[in-house]
Amino acid sequence: MIARTETRLWTASYAIALLGLGACGGGNEPAGQASAGTGGTVTAGTGSNAGGKAAGGTTSNPGGAGGTATGGASAGGAGSGGSAPSAGAGSGGGGSGGTAGTGAPPSGGVAGMGTAGMNAAGTLSAGGMAPMAGAAGMGAGGTGQPPTVNGALFTVTSTLASAMDAKAPTTVGIVTWSAMTITVKSAYLEFGLDTTYGMQAPVDVTLADFRTLLLGMKPAKTYHFRVVASDGTTQYASNDYTIETGAATTAVKIGGFSVKQEAGRERGFIVTSYWQGSGSSVAFILDADGDIVWAYDTGMSGGIARARISYDGQNLWAVTADNGGQSIRRVGMDGMNAQTYSSTKSSHDIAAVKGGTMAYLDYSVSCNDINEIDPSGTTKKIFTASGTFGTQCHGNAVRYSEAEDEYTYSVVDKDVIRVSRAGEKLWSLADTVSGGNSSWGAVNHGHHLLKNSIVIFANKGGTSGASAMIEYDFMGKKLSSYSGAMSGNLGDVQRLPGGNTLVDFSNADVMQEVDSKGTVLVEITGPGSQNRFGYATWRPTLYGPSPDITD
Predict the structure, then answer these.
(1) 411 exposed, middle or buried (CB, 10 Å; 0-12, 13-18, 19+)?
(2) How many C-beta neighbours within 10 Å does residue 315 have?
(3) Among 17, 12, 35, 40, which Cα is nearest to 526's?
(4) CB within 8 A of 374, min separation 6: which ones?
(5) Neighbouring C-alpha atoms within 13 Å toward the C-beta of 492
(6) Measured at the alpha carbon of residue 539, what is the angle toward residues 536 and 543, in degrees to the nearest 5?
(7) Phi and psi at residue 66, in whole multiples of 5°?
(8) 3-state class (DSSP) for residue 160
(9) Dist CA 355 CA 378 (whole Å)
(10) Please, which residues have CB within 8 angstroms of residue 189's CB and are 6 or more apart in sequence?
């Protein structure tokens, strides 16, 4: 069960932020201000969960090799391209093509994909940020072919979501299309700032008009896109089209986005909010350059503690930071069909589970249970917290792990536990670690369950009274820590696929991406001393599930 045997300590000096009001903390919470500092010294240690999720590293990851064709007496078939392994943060080459069989020269293997992209057949691979096709494979006696461009085959229309609903983001494109003479078996849209594209949007081919969203586009830019569709035998591409995104949002802003070290950082998107300060009713998404590429004003009072995209990528859900709890909100990723679930009362956290289902903390009871909810509003109780923590407890964070099919659940001044989806308590961090929860300062919020360990945000677990990210194995051994700014409320952590960690010091209004040595690679700050970041989720793409669920 133990992932590593060494212990290492990461430290960084930061100015201390005083506690704020509203979201939970470890005690009394007077209002205060925070200022961010710079990374400090680091003691030696190796990376935790370093490298990409499969064969990928953090800078490059080749695509899979092509299959070998076994030729018949008259004509051998092409070998199909190998599946792309999970990529790291960089880009990988395409897979090798299939080896020719006997007989007539076959076509090359299906191209394997590089970074977090699709292979030429349109299968999505997990991994790094910018989805880009690998080079076409070369089969012996044949060449892997790019899609056949046939503009006459396709009828394509596009518009901005904001042209259909004034509340919708100005950066979301809606594309509908049809293909006249083929039966579409699979498809995707390529899009980007030029005709090399670089981003891909999967298409749900069960929809009559193949309606597809272009997500992650920057404001006030011209984007190119095209349709790539397959009938199961041949891939076809439409002509190139363009779409103009609208102006940048004025509803929310950040203070700064500073890349301290480009090498080794993991480019992706961050879904977040403010639980206090200006723009605190707005859920928003930052891209790898710090641009706000999606924003929606929920109208929620009390600030947004968590904004979370569903597993299927169709909706964004939000819950308040108000300790009294409020109704859960949901909106489509196109910024339409918003819904308020008035029968619910939740606060602090909401987690993506499977499909469109979410899990939330039930604030209608005095010891906050874990409930599930689907887009129709149907709810199901999963875990009755009072059976473990008594009649009074303050649940403040929940996360789901698909690999384990279980939840992790934090109670602010007590524990972080593992709970099966059947509602059974499986494991307790406080019962496992020597000294109990006092060993991490007895206040905890966000956390992330890994294969062999768990990472927690310990609000009082750092040096000189600061907060810290701390990693423990399941035997209670401390594996690593990173001490940064002070956050008495909220605070979040996420281990990224390449081994870096996103640490969200909410009250200090600063987020950092740090590597396994504690080096600060990226630092994000809010617009002023009155703002407090909500929880945050890093994603390599805005389509499908985020890696903290699937890893």
Answers:
(1) buried
(2) 21
(3) 35
(4) 355, 356, 357, 358
(5) 32
(6) 125
(7) -70, 155
(8) strand
(9) 14
(10) 175, 200, 201, 203, 212, 214, 225, 226, 227, 228
CA atoms within 13 A on the CB side of 300: 40
Predicted TM-score (pTM) of this structure: 0.78
Residue 120 pLDDT: 34
Neighbour count for residue 42 (Cβ, 10 Å): 18
Q: For residue 38, which phi and psi values (nearest 5 degrees)? A: -120, 165
Residue type, 188: Y
The rounded distance, in Å, linking the Cα atoms of 163 and 335 is 11
Whole-angstrom distance, CA of residue 413 vs CA of residue 441: 9
CA distances from 509 to 444, 506, 535 (A): 18, 5, 11
CA pair distance 310, 357, nearest whole angstrom: 7
Question: Could you give the C-alpha distances from 327 to 301, 344, 346, 360, 416, in angstroms and in order?
Answer: 10, 5, 6, 11, 25
Integer CA distances (angstroms), 263 to 41, 89, 271, 519, in order: 19, 10, 23, 11
Distance CA 546, CA 313 (A): 9
Cα 245 to Cα 9: distance, rounded to the nearest angstrom: 45
Identify the three-state secondary structure at position 385: coil
Nearest to 120 by CA among 79, 181, 172, 71: 79
- DSSP helix/strand/coil, 37: coil
Query: What backbone torsions phi and psi does residue 40 show, to the nearest 5 degrees?
Result: -110, -150
Rg from Cα positions in the chain:
24
Confidence class for position 528, pLDDT limits 50, 70, 90: confident
Distance (Å, whole) CA 531 – CA 518: 25
Q: How far apart are CA 400 and CA 350, in angstroms?
A: 10
Read off the pLDDT of residues 463-503 as tens digits, 9 standing for 90 and up. Answer: 888 999 999 999 999 999 999 999 999 999 999 999 999 99
Bridge-based pairing state of the strands 425-428 and 154-160: unpaired
